[in-house]
Design brief:
CATH architecture of the largest domain: 6 Propeller
Strand content: 35-45%
Structural class: mainly beta
Distance between the termini: 75 Å
CATH topology of the largest domain: Neuraminidase
CATH class of the largest domain: Mainly Beta
Number of strands: 44
Shape: elongated
């Protein structure tokens, strides 16, 4: 999620039928809210900032479900639009500071709550000891606005550290908290070190500083840890790190992901998304990589050049990867690795557990959330959020995903906001924080062609466990039973990386290990010595020779003859 400005074709919507529009001049004194000059929609307003200390306030009533438009045909001073409290800035018309910096002479802002609003007019100061005053004019009118069940949003927490143009991502924590990754301290850009703000369920705040430069990837994994992409100072290579929310410590889990690039508010940095099964996907520009929950690479998927400006990544309840491509739309990656276009709406992506897709579209004050059904048909506009950054389903205190929808309202407010109840049709889809890091005891090596058996164990866990292969592969001929026993006759040589899940009740340990299958080393002398009463072969080797010999249940000369023929040392009988 990021404050991406999408190119939006400007269309003129019909104005609402005006009340009695007329010209209004400011009436002094009007330097406070209490003394504000009252105006109405469709009025033409004029006034003058007579000196650098002069302030003009205007007050007017607005209905809900409109887009307020304001223009400044005359003057080069500040017009600042305030919420109903007269304190919270919502938007502004800024002055033109220089000839090559055009002014913001008009704006549009969605009004989802009726009430009394304010405009404050003050002088401009393009540089120290330089002040712009003089006459000004203002016009304001309303156009229809489609509102949704998520309107009006409600502020949950202020994020004053979030400045305009900052790169920002947010994820839901494992116990009702929200983590916000910031790449800007509100003073300078870029800040070398990433900062992560934790906002608790009651609005309490704390900071995590993992001592990283940030490339944009940010997600919560199945262990309840934060996945962050970036590099340490002095390192030019991008990596993925697991950051522990409790103490801020970090460990590198995926290395060498190409040249490091700073995250930006244009969303063209690195991205990470975690699937419902705990696997995660990560990538930048034209490649996505698929990893298991502990960072073992499973697959690499090349993307077409259209993904160059991809700025969002999400995974559906069915495990299908989707990405938003700025200016072009949203796409999915099919099982055969082909890419399919799903909708021309691009933005931040989130899914509910029924497969509905929610897209947060950000284009300055035109920000809004749109819902599509699992077949990508438009359902409704969910809510209007100016300067929107991201869409998120948070978890409750027990770690269960809720049906609440959160976003960050940027611009002048910098708030974490919740859409009104009913914004989502179902609880969110996402990974359940259910895994615990396990330490798998060393797996005994096997020998190609020789019967094999070993029982898996997790260090420190003595309870009965139900085992399954989570990722990777076993050599052909070897299987893993539910009680954690590896058995079979391996037919492949090599080192096989695998990850296993071991469950007891509601708790699951996830661990990685390797099974090595060595080549069979056996000499003719060993076999003949065993047949003549010398050192016996191991039961596994004797069984191997008998199975590949005359299969009569014992080691005998027939087995020796079969082995010699297999080694090319004895001709087969004609």
């Amino acid at each position: 999620m990021k404050s991406v400005l999408l190119a939006v074709a400007f269309c003129v919507l019909p104005r609402l039928a005006p009340a009695q529009a007329h010209h209004v001049s400011e009436r002094e004194p009007n330097e406070t809210l209490a003394l504000a000059t009252r105006i109405a929609l469709d009025d033409s307003v004029s006034g003058e900032i007579s000196d650098r200390e002069d302030i003009d306030f205007f007050v007017f009533d607005l209905p809900a479900s409109i887009t307020l438009r304001m223009v400044r045909p005359v003057g080069n001073v500040w017009f600042i639009f305030y919420d109903t409290d007269g304190v919270t800035r919502l938007s502004a018309l800024s002055p033109a500071w220089t000839a090559d910096h055009p002014d913001s002479s008009h704006f549009a802002y969605p009004i989802t709550r009726s009430g009394t609003y304010y405009v404050r007019v003050v002088r401009a100061s393009p540089e120290a000891d330089v002040y712009i005053t003089g006459p000004y004019a203002m016009q304001l009118w309303a156009e229809p606005l489609t509102t949704g069940p998520g309107d009006p949003p409600k502020s949950l927490a202020d994020i004053p550290e979030l400045s305009s143009g900052a790169a920002v991502e947010m994820v839901g924590g494992p116990a009702g908290d929200v983590f916000v990754a910031l790449h800007d301290d509100g003073i300078s850009w870029p800040v070398v070190k990433l900062r992560i703000l934790r906002i608790g369920p009651g609005g309490e705040r704390s900071w995590i500083t993992p001592d990283l430069r940030w490339s944009g990837g940010f997600a919560l994994d199945a262990f309840g840890d934060l996945l962050v992409s970036g590099a340490e100072a002095g390192d030019s290579t991008n990596h993925i790190w697991r950051v522990h929310p409790g103490d801020g410590t970090k460990e590198k889990i995926v290395t060498d992901l190409g040249l490091f690039r700073y995250a930006s508010d244009h969303g063209d940095g690195f991205h990470i998304a975690v699937a419902p099964n705990g696997d995660f996907w990560a990538g930048q520009v034209v490649v996505l990589r698929h990893y298991d929950a502990i960072g073992r690479l499973l697959d690499t998927v090349p993307l077409p050049r259209t993904a160059l400006a991809a700025y969002s990544l999400a995974i559906s309840p069915a495990g299908v990867v989707h990405y938003g491509y700025a200016y072009h739309g949203t796409y999915r990656i099919n099982a055969d690795r082909s890419v399919a276009f799903v909708t021309d709406t691009a933005g931040d992506l989130a899914f509910d557990r029924d497969g509905n897709l929610y897209i947060g579209v950000s284009s300055n004050s035109w920000g809004h959330v749109i819902q599509y059904d699992p077949e990508y048909h438009f359902v409704r506009r969910v809510a209007n959020v100016p300067y929107l950054n991201g869409v998120l389903f948070p978890r409750d205190a027990q770690g269960e995903l809720t049906s609440r929808l959160l976003t960050i309202q940027g611009g002048f407010i910098h708030d974490l906001v919740a859409l009104a109840d009913g914004a989502a049709r179902a609880p969110g889809s996402g990974v359940l924080v259910r895994l615990t890091h396990g330490d798998l005891a060393t797996i005994e090596a096997g020998t190609q062609g020789v019967a094999y058996r070993d029982t898996l164990t997790i260090a420190g866990v003595g309870d009965p466990l139900s085992w399954s292969l989570a990722s990777g592969m076993l050599p052909r001929g070897v299987t893993l039973s539910e009680d954690g026993v590896l058995t079979g006759i391996p037919s492949d040589r090599g080192v096989f990386a695998l990850s296993v899940a071991a469950t007891n009740g509601t708790k699951t340990w996830y661990a990685g290990g390797t099974l090595e299958v060595r080549s069979l080393i056996l000499s003719e002398r060993q076999i003949t010595d065993a047949l003549l009463g010398g050192p016996p072969l191991s039961p596994q080797l004797a069984d191997y020779l008998d199975r590949n010999g005359n299969a009569n249940g014992q080691l005998d000369v027939g087995d020796l003859r079969a082995w010699l023929r297999a080694q090319g040392k004895l001709r087969s009988p004609r």
